[in-house]
Hints:
The protein is α+β, with helices and mostly antiparallel strands. Helix 1 runs antiparallel to helix 4 (about 145-170). The chain is about 25% helix and about 35% strand. The chain has helices at about 1-30, 115-120, 125, 145-170, 175-180, 190-200, and strands at about 40-50, 60-65, 70-75, 85-95, 100-110, 205-210, 220, 225, 230, 235-240, 245-250, 250-255, 260-265, 275-280, 290-295, 295-300, 310, 315, 320-325, 330, 335-340. It is elongated and about 75 Å long.
Amino acid sequence: MQSKYRFNLFVFILILLSSTFAQTKLDEIMQNPGRFDGEAVTLEGTVIRYVASPTSTNYYLLQSDYGAVIKVNTAEGAPETYGKYRVKGIVYIDAQTRQAFLSEKSRTKTGTASEQETTSKPTTQQRTQPPIQEQPPVVKESSDNTMIYILVGGIVVILGILIFVMTKKKEEPAFASSQASAPAPSYGGGMQSTEVSESSFSSMPTQKIETTQDSFKTIKITTSAPKTLKFIPGKLVITAGDDKGKEFKIAGYPTSEGSIVSIGREEIKGERAHSHIQLLQPTISRKQAEIISVSGKLYVRNMSETNLTQVDGIEVQPNQKVELKNGATIRTGEVEFQYKV
């Protein structure tokens, strides 16, 4: 019974410790976004606004108990305003604003804002105002956060003392005998549940593309894409080079500007690799061009100042964006694509 009591106490302290970190993680991300870029995190907070965007990915604003606010891109339905949620996703940095936002993978409702919290809800006039276009301000660390860090430190010290005492204390003979004959216990919680949580992003359902990597010589693309990424209508057909006649579909990565597919010589890893066409020729820039899907239209933006991208034989200037219509061709170095719907 003593051993079971100690184990239950150990699990309770771990749960309390992980819950404390979950509540402060949002504030830490907004204070130092570069540290969490590309990292899978679990956040807890209150939804204070939901925006259904007609031109890009829908999103909502998640606020921590200490005032920090982060933008969460979602492909699911609208969450309940002023509902409390636990959200899992990946942190990214917006290329234009340099502010952090979260690409949602899953969310779970944990409750509803208390009566004291709801007194600060916006008025009817404030709710009718257009969505905020800027990233939420970063909230400076408060004395409340300092108290939380002290509390966490105290819990860690207590946990260390308990583990030390349990390790040093001699077991009773009867208990030692039962331990020798019994199989090693398998703890269904604790470490196992952590491993499942971290691997869920890599094992999430994907949408298959019929092409395979081995079938191309001049480009490199992934063969699948997470369901959170939207496939761009139509396909790209290679019309010049060693891969002439081969075709493939592309999926855009959701941003505030629209769904974007990057093109270039650099190799990209992680979730963004599913929205990247890597060109294998040395005459291509690391960041050559981007295909942007917004409001039902496609655009090509040239990202290189030395190797200009051509659309239908016309050179696109650096940072210039031109519309990509059905049948149009994109030429980068020795590789030429034709967009077909």
